[in-house]
Amino acid sequence: MLTLRSEIDRYKKTSRMTFEEEKTECREDLILRYAPLVKYIADRMASRMPSNVSKDDLSSAGIIGLFDAIDNFDPGKGIKFETYASYRIRGAILDEIRKLDWVPRTVRRDIQDIKTAIGAFQARCGRDPEDHEISGEMGVDLETYYKMTGKASGVNMVSLDEYQGDNSETAVARIASGALSPFDEYRRNELKEVIADVLSDLQEKEQMVISLYYFDELTLKEIAQIMELTESRISQIHSKAVIMLRMKLKEYIES
Predict the structure, then answer these.
(1) What single-letter DSSP state applies at residue 168?
(2) How far is it, in rounded angstroms, from Cα 6 to Cα 136?
(3) Regarding the domain delimited by 105-254, which CATH topology (the fold level of the hierarchy) does it fall under?
(4) Half-sphere exposure of 227 (CA within 13 A, CB side)
(5) Are 172 and 91 in contact (CB under 8 A)?
(6) Residues 120 and 211 sit within 8 Å (Cβ to Cβ)
(7) Alpha-carbon dihedral sign for residues 150, 38, 215, 228
(8) Core-most of 12, 118, 222, 251, by most CB within 10 Å?
């Protein structure tokens, strides 16, 4: 039985040949082996998105990420192929999500209104606002504010797999491939410190939701079960925390 490295070498070799049938056969062998990985990642990411986002579309994007991983994988870096492929698959799916026009204008407007209210309160009071203070700043009741944050949950997807500038690789893929320059390493460590500092300012429940969602990669439903709260309440907590995080990171990036 061929090893993974042998399969990848064979795929690269046939990719340079004109024999399309053999090239296609290699692709089929590799996709059959790693299709479950693509499906798992696509399903987990789809569970965080609104129902109108197609799992099939995300899976198709993940397949592209898989082949991209095969083409660029370097066993000499000492990184497992599954780890590298996972980053590439996630990056390709995130890129597809960004291309989709699935967010209603009203939701985008609500998010901007929430950001404006938070910014105004911070400037006036010198601290981060509570939920009722945000709703008061916006001139709406608390229930209306919670409905706004609930609808915004799927929009607020934060990930290190963001494309940077004209680079064709994602930030995490560059880390995995060992391609970080000393400046990249410095900026990455600085960003980690900023994120840690921002998270420390969040309320305890918000910190827990962010940790379980982004680091443990649990769904909102799973987090609700752990924290013994409703899924809608977890969605609200998540949305506010991410909006705060984005605002702080924006200040850092523009500084």
Answers:
(1) S
(2) 63
(3) Arc Repressor Mutant, subunit A (1.10.10)
(4) 26
(5) yes
(6) no
(7) positive
(8) 118
